[in-house]
Amino acid sequence: MRINKFLSLCGVASRRASDDLIRQGRVTVNGDVLEGLGREVDEHKDDVRVDGKRVRPPKRTSILMFHKPAGCVCSASDPQGRTTVYDYLPAEYRSMKYIGRLDLQSRGLLLFTDDGDLLYKLTHPKFEVPRSYYVWTTRPLSHADAQKLVDGVEIGENEKGVMESAHAEEIFFDQGFFEMVLCEGKNREIRRMLEQVGYTIRDLKRVTYAGIGLGNLPTGEFRELSSAEEKILREAVED
User: Which part of the chain is the RNA-binding S4 domain (predicted)?
Assistant: First the structure.
């Protein structure tokens, strides 16, 4: 493709502005300063650099799965200098948006996408997208308190001063922990719910989102979703 189109795809500048960069001698191809505006380049083979920094087009993907570790922030940057989820991703993925944040100490499944419509549908409460979490508390959750969570508990005022309530869709008990399914995703929702019934969370891990499971993806690693997984996500929010 023409060099100015390539630079535009890489997010360097518009085609017209890319022509200006070439005229200024700031673009090299395979180590040679580019002089002509009509140069064709191969995006897979040619080493294209602007001001000495190699540029590549973004990877053609729309959904990414990441296993978020505890202690990193769901944010593009952090004023306190803490590690963010984007620090784990290569540059070509860092323009993608995460789907449903996890708080600082929560870990597990975090999806990213560059599809704005899909992002909206997967996070808006009206689509009731299920997310499941493994929850470890400092003492066992009683069945009576689990029923309170399913029935719904008040979790404090939101930013607009309106009293919020939340409820679990389902709770499954197991040895030493329980699994909780939600369909909204309010800020720190599970932690606030458990506080209201007198429990402190030791560990919280999201394991599924809209039918997509974390599986055995190692902590701090990422992968693209398969076409079958992407189909499951899109079908979960069909109008």
Answer: 1-63
- What is the rounded CA–CA span in Å between residue 193 and residue 186? 11
Structural domain boundaries, residue 129: 63-236
DSSP of 69-107: PTT-BSSS--TT---BGGGGS-GGGTTSEEES---TT-E
Average pLDDT value for residue range 119-135: 91
Q: Which secondary structure element, helix H or strand E, spans residue 153, and what is its range?
A: strand 153-157
Banded model confidence at residue 14, pLDDT cuts 50, 70, 90: confident
CATH code of 25's domain: 3.10.290.10
Q: Against a cut of 0.85, is the pTM above it? A: no
Q: Considering its fold, how many domains does the chain have in total?
A: 2
103 given a catalytic annotation: yes
Q: Please identify which of the residues 78, 103, 114, 203 carries the catalytic annotation.
A: 103
> How far is 94 from 15, CA to CA, in rounded Å?
22
**Torsions phi, psi for 114 (to 5 deg):** -110, 15
What tens digit of pLDDT does each residue of 39-59 get?
Answer: 999 888 899 999 999 998 876
Q: What does pLDDT average to over the chain?
A: 89
How crowded is residue 212: how many other Cβ atoms within 10 Å of its Cβ? 21
Q: Which residues pair with 49 in a beta bridge?
A: 28, 54
